Protein: Cytochrome-c peroxidase
Amino acid sequence: MKATASRYWLALMLASGLQLLLMSSFKKAAPLITPAQRTQEQFLRDIIDLDSVASRLETAIKARQSASILQLALGKTRDQYKRIEYLTEYYYPLLAKAINGPAVVEGELDDGVGLQREPSGLQLLEEKLIAYDSTQNADLLGQVSQLRQTIGKLSRLAQYSPLSDEQVFDAMRLEVFRLIALGISGFDTPISRRALPEAAIVLSSLEKSLAHYRPRLQQADPGLTNQLQQALQEAISALRTCRSFDDFDRLHFIRNHAYKFTRLLTKAQQVLIISIPVDRTRLLSASTTTLSEPDAFDPGFFTNTEASRSTAARVALGRQLFYEPILSGNGQRTCATCHRPDRAFTDGETTSLALDGHERIHRNTPTLLNAALQTAQFMDLRAFGLEDQIRDVLQNKTEMGGSLARAVEQLNSHDTYPICFKEAYTDGITAYNITNALANYVRSLTALDSRVDRYLRGLPAHLTTNEKRGFNLFMGKANCGTCHYFPLFNGSIPPAYQKTESEVIGAPATASERQVDSDSGRYLSTKLAIHQRAFKIPTVRHAVHTAPYMHNGVYQTLEQVVEFYDKGGGRGLGFAISNQTLPANKLNLTPGEKKALVAFMKAL
Structure:
């Protein structure tokens, strides 16, 4: 019995020891939670909190609470969304738009058919709650219900989409760029003007995510860790301590806070040995440290195929063709006839002379500078690439009056062109290669290194007090930056810059401003009523050289353009334009502010 008992206890001890050994081994083998996983856990908790505050907004509407209480509840919902904005925008852009997209009806061409999309989300709710009418509660409840459904969809997707370190850092950098170009300009807070406190919340959310990486970074580079933390805190403080939206020094903030942070963020990523993607599927370079680098954008991004991208031989050939009269129907006109290099590739005419030298083309000639950095071409956005635009112009009876088929024949019989084309293209002279060579020359006309850009990068470039004031007005009180987006200052939406917008501003027919211009604009392509008199938002870079202005060349000076916008566009002039997308309220700019705006645009 004693021997049996001894064997029992010995076996029990051995089993217990083995169990402890196995448990110890399991603990050692248990995977550590990575910073990206901790970031995802926080993301999921914040989504739950967003649904919770949206639910309280819904309850307040059902209870028919006062407008002030409803607006406060909406503000809390917006604040909570800002905590998840950077990951939502990065991983789920369509859901982000449904949650916080512009409160305007949008329309696009899809296989030649115009499709219209109604707005939804927080901006639309803000618009409705500012002018709260309890009789509209059913509509408001429907909007909040739709918002919560979108949040629910986001929650489900986020659970099964693991984050990576590379993407988290990429998303953080893009969020700072979004904050610079859209957040502090008031793009998504056009009524409440809560842009600055919301921007502070955005940066606080990035601070929370970076905290997951801080132990590793502290071990690798303690000095950089402290610099990064200090840069973030200084940026947040600058946003929180500013007295008002109009008073905020955006130029100083971008140069000394936002760009300081994005540079340090990139450095931290390198120290942590987290790869920076080389991504040719984006217009904005994934490795750029600021939006003001001269090579931050890829001029070849919108090229039809990778094989059609620019080479030195193609650019040189395109430049030759740009001045080649063979391409015109009468053998006398060239691309440079209407796009003169000495006028920033415009012609200085109100509207260009037609091929016959007597009639006029209906619209003003736009600059080719930076034309590669927009999704669509022409004032009415009817062409989706430079090659398409060039083909249209070459074969348009009133513009070039040429024929690509005939051009191929004539260029093939030329002394030097067959050799030049063979150097640039394996298949020699073709209709497509003609348009592609010209397009690649236009892509070479990308110029993003003005005094403003150099100043923002911290280089010894001088801006006058008036030019600095003009930048802050452009990006703030004057609302220019909510359509002419920083830093391209055209209608390409940040931070992807892969969709170019149109706008209905109600330009007058003549400088007397007595009636609206009759040009139907984008409506001619889409047949959507919202696009009646809609035109592409052009860049204001190099605008000092591109007069006259507007699609019809109605204004001769930048001062006249500023006056038009200050009055509230066409509706401000008294024109009955029900679909005007430009706010019709007056800006009430002082004479000094108007001068400062013009001074800034000239500095570009």
Summary: Strands lie at 106-110, 113-117, 502-503, 535-536.
